[in-house]
Amino acid sequence: MNMININKQCYLTVTLCFLLASVIATPLAAQESASEVEAPEMTEQAEKAIERGLKYLISSQNKDGSWSTKDPAKGGGGGYAIAGTSLGLMAFMVEGHFPGFGKYGKALDRAKEYLLKRSKDSETGAMGVKMYEIGLYTIAMSELWGMTSDPDDNKKIQVALERVVEIILRSQSPLGGWRYGPRPDAGQDTSVTAMVFVSLASAREAGVLVPTETIERLTGYLRDQAFDEQRGGFGYQGKGYTIACTAGGVYAAQLAGNRDTEWVQAALSSLENDPKMFSRKDNGHFYYSHYYAMQAMVQAGEEHYAKWYPKIRDALVTLQKPNGSWQEKELDYPHKTPMSIIILGTPNRYIPVYQR
């Protein structure tokens, strides 16, 4: 097992030692100040909501191991299987469940094998899907690397991961963003760009090389092409403000090393003060935007996170359906349930890209 994978498995031990050393080395006054901001924890209701959500995912998994939209006209299967399966795996991983281990091990093995087969069968490695799904697939592969029960999987996952990262790198537009098509002349928009760059940050955490130039061009796109100084947020294509693009833009910019810049702080403030943010009715991309916003608050620091997490935690518990899902209609996109679980499971900090 390589050093990257050893580090991932030893994360909790290293973190505990670091925190202990920090407490010893920190002056008493600073310790008292820090203690004023207590990190929120999952409530019993949130824990139960997560478990019900995971059981729903198990019950709705397709025979081939994937998760997708459910279309009765197609025998139950549907579209967005790469995105749905990648997010489904991450929903279990955020709770510490991995392929080959525990009560969900077999189901997660099937999901893992589905993704690896789709990659292997694809001549280009792009699997015939758009950049949204490629980004989510990249995160799943990054976080799976070294965390499965079969050592032979490590090489397969590494090959698949490095292959898809190459696609992402060569698909970056001259202005620094990405759009739907996996090619540099496809253009760019902030929504796709955020998803794709978060996946590159995840791959980088796993040990895959991401050139500094790629990160700098991404920063240039967000700062110069998408950020609107008057609105204090990010537009979809060009300057402006949408909740989802601002949440995604902030998180991507933070991961690119711009956490403390004035423009990122301004966009973060816009999110925190947007009255529509926690309204399912008024926030049209509720689950998608909160998937990013939650992690942006983690990156912003404990004070931001401590104020944000309880509100979205309690909102998601209320929005969960009787069957354990967060799906709102039969042919709904497959992202809402796993994204809700990932958000609720934020205090666990099991997945590296969701850590500060």
Provide the descriptors you would attach to this structure in a database record.
356 residues, mainly alpha, disordered N terminus, Glycosyltransferase, two-stranded antiparallel sheet, 1% strand, 15 helices
Task: Describe the overall structure.
- With 356 residues, the protein is mainly α.
- It contains 15 helices and two strands.
- A two-stranded antiparallel ribbon has the order 1-2.
- Helix 4 runs antiparallel to helix 15.
- It is globular and about 50 Å long.
- The protein starts with a helix and ends in a 12-residue tail after the last helix.
Structural class: mainly alpha
Envelope shape: globular
Low-confidence stretches: 1-35
Biggest β-sheet description: 2 strands, antiparallel
Quantity of strands, as a count: 2
Give the proportion of residues in helices. Answer: 55-70%
Arithmetic mean of pLDDT: 89
CATH architecture: Alpha/alpha barrel
H-E order: HHHHHHHHHHEEHHHHH
Number of domains: 1
Strand order of the largest sheet: 1-2
Could you tell me the CATH topology label: Glycosyltransferase
Q: Kindly estimate the percentage of residues that lie in beta strands according to DSSP.
A: under 5%
**Termini gap:** 25 Å
